[in-house]
Amino acid sequence: MKNLSTDSLLWQKRTSHNLRRKGKKYNPNKVPFNRVLNQMMLEAPDSLDLYDPEKNQEILDFIENIEKIALTHKVVLDFSITRFISAAALLLIYAKLDAMKSSALHNLVRIKADSLKGQVKSAITKSGLKELTLNRRLEINPHSRTIPIIKGSARGEEFEQVIDHIQLNILKDLTPEQERVLGSAVSETIGNVKLHAYPDDSTDQKPWWIICSIIDDSLYLAIFDLGVGIPATILSKSWVQRQISSAPNLLKLAVSKSDADLIELSMRVGKTQTKEEKHGLGSASIKALVHETPNGSLWIFSNKGMYHKHREGFETSNFKSSIEGTLVQWNIQIR
Predict the structure, then answer these.
(1) 1 within domain boundaries
(2) Residue 170: inside a domain, yes or no?
(3) Which one, 53, 229, 264, 300, has least CB within 10 Å?
(4) 3-state class of 109 per DSSP?
């Protein structure tokens, strides 16, 4: 029999392992941990997809495991069996690890470099996640059409940096109308976080993270904050209560008090925290992205709820665990 090379043997071992795992669900209580040099090796799920209702809980369990283990050990993340990572999942993981870095309670988290392959390697590298775990920040390439994940605050300097990059590298190819819609939606999305995610925090420390990328002929933008979440604030507003009292369909959502229903309520009333129409998740600029864009889609994840709007309608669902913040993602066709 012909001798196999070391690379071939490793590939066969990896393929065999993946086939054995096919169809298996991620069990956070049975995650393989390998203790090496006082480090804990934590294996990531085979798919990190926040949009998939059968996979999104796995991401939250994975993040919870990282946070829990990092309290007592250094953590090495192993992506050997991970086939796919979505932009929303990548943003969520990045933000959580970045927040952990600011805590004196957590140990270092690193990525097992040789475990990264294919789409997962490309996405993690471009996002700057690997650099983050090495205590470095990936700088924006002024000539690139994509940017690494950016962390911002209420002061807004980083927000201007994102806007400038989009205008210089993306908007130049758009029609005036596309530029108007996109510019309004970007400003609106970040404005929501700056004004609303941290209603009781008077300081400038209101962090948010943004990811922006081009896939095929569409621009995808997602932003995440660690604020109190839409479900925690929507019913506390007097103007919302007035609308609810005069509309039975809104009252039904409010009485339910599920996080997904409360996100839908925020879309129905057209505002989140102020009476200014331009600052609402249900306002015109963001809705236009869905209704006027082929394959347009708006995703809102807040605490335990999920709301997905597209041209044909919308769906909602609730998670078992909370993402402990709000993540908003939308896309617009640019070509």
Answers:
(1) no
(2) yes
(3) 53
(4) strand
Q: Structural domain of residue 112, as residue ranges?
A: 6-133
Its pTM stands at 0.83
- CATH number of the structural domain spanning residue 264: 3.30.565.10
DSSP secondary structure letters along 243-302: HHHT-HHHHHHHHH--HHHHHHHHHHHT-SSSS-GGG-TTSHHHHHHHHSSTT-EEEEEE
Q: Quote the distance between the C-alpha of residue 197 and its chain's center.
A: 15
- CB-based contact 327:301 (threshold 8 Å): yes
Which CA distances in Å does 188 have to 146, 276, 295? 20, 11, 21
Q: Residue 60's pLDDT is what? A: 95
Q: 210: how many CB neighbours lie within 10 A of its CB? A: 25
Quote the pLDDT of residue 17: 47
User: d(Cα 240, Cα 280) in Å, to the nearest integer?
Assistant: 12
Say what the pLDDT of residue 71 is. 93
Residue-wise pLDDT for 236-277, tens only, equals 888 888 889 888 889 989 998 899 999 999 888 864 444 444
Looking at the structure, do residues 122 and 207 belong to the same domain, yes or no? no
Residue stretches of the chain with pLDDT short of 50: 1-21, 271-280
For the chain, how many structural domains are there in total? 2
Provide the 8-state DSSP code for 172.
G
Pairwise CA distance, residues 208 & 320, whole Å: 24
Query: Could you give the CA distance from residue 163 to residue 158 in angstroms, rounded to a whole number?
Result: 9
State the alpha helices, DSSP H only, in the chain. 6-21, 56-69, 87-101, 118-127, 129-133, 157-169, 176-196, 230-233, 238-245, 248-256, 259-269, 284-291
Residues 183 and 316 in one domain: yes
The Cα–Cα gap between 4 and 1 comes to 9
Q: Are 326 and 300 in contact (CB under 8 A)?
A: yes
User: Which of 150, 154, 264 minimizes the C-alpha distance to 199?
Assistant: 154
Q: What is the model's pLDDT at position 260?
A: 96
Give the C-alpha separation, 291 to 309, whole Å. Answer: 9
